[in-house]
Amino acid sequence: MTLPEFFQFSQGSLQDYVDCPRRFQLKYIEQLAWPAVDTEPALENEQFLQLGAAFHRLVQQYLIGVPSEKLTRLAERDIQLAHWWENFLAEARKMDDWKAGQLYPEISLSAPLSDFRLVGKFDLLTANANKFIIYDWKTSRKQPKREWIAANLQTRVYPYLLACAGTHLNAGKSIEPAQIEMIYWFANFPATPLHFPYSEAQHQADEEFIDGLIVEIRALSAEPAPLTENEKRCHYCVYRSLCNRGIAAGPLESLEEDRTADMFDFDLDFEQIAEIEF
Ligand code: SF4
Predict the structure, then answer these.
(1) Ligand 1 pocket check for 134: Cβ under 6 Å
(2) Are 11 and 119 in contact (CB under 8 A)?
(3) Which CATH number characterizes residue 98's domain?
(4) pLDDT (tens digit, 9 = 90+) per residue, 142-190?
(5) Residues 188, 140: contact at Cβ < 8 Å?
(6) Which of 56, 235, 237, 245 matches a 20 to 30 Å C-alpha distance to 34?
(7) Is residue 2 part of a domain?
(8) Ligand 1 pocket member 11 (CB < 6 A)
(9) Number of separate domains in the chain
(10) Please, which residues have CB within 8 angstroms of residue 134's CB and are 6 or more apart in sequence?
């Protein structure tokens, strides 16, 4: 079996492959839906995901010009959401470069990748004074360590994608990697965003790394791909019973403690948000 024609890679699918080749194979090549929850209690996890999606939607509406008073009334329906929203508004009011520059909330980019495409959707891209900043909002309960985020595929794929596919945002000129920065802003920890400036050297390294992953993925045969050696990942994977890696879903309360440098699956991305009914 091979990947479907016109398959589009994303940071999420590449992360799945890096985390566990078998998971990638089951999810994207065999497209196997498996009736299991990934985290318990499922309802609480679902509610947390819903709140995160609601927060992203509020921010997007603010950035396209919906009056903040109107959005605040929506946010006040939930204590947690109201807290995140209050933190965001305080931050947004300080962001002078947002007022001076061009804002692209929820912008999608796409670039060729081997015979496929690489796609990504950013929470916000700002362009100001020759500088391009990718913002990503995180609603995680704990602030992950910087090295965990640095190792996450999102931190590599998004700036790489902007450098490859952002010409139309820069008056027809390529965006140089040194013009790019990625910022993670944490709704629960507004004073400690994490900044990741990009560079030509990092861009080269990311290109080699991503191309290498595609070569490996194309070489997958119909045989089961290797299972992850980090069985903690299996606790939160819907395929665990299929792989004989347990039956019960991992507990939500331990999810963030279980995240380690090589098991990093933090917070929402747009692939998940799109699946959550808002
Ligand atoms: S249960 Fe574990 S080994 Fe199986 S696909 Fe999921 S992460 Fe991979």
Answers:
(1) no
(2) no
(3) 3.90.320.10
(4) 888 899 899 999 999 999 999 999 999 999 999 999 999 999 999 999 9
(5) yes
(6) 56
(7) no
(8) no
(9) 1
(10) 122, 124, 125, 158, 159, 162, 180, 181, 182, 183
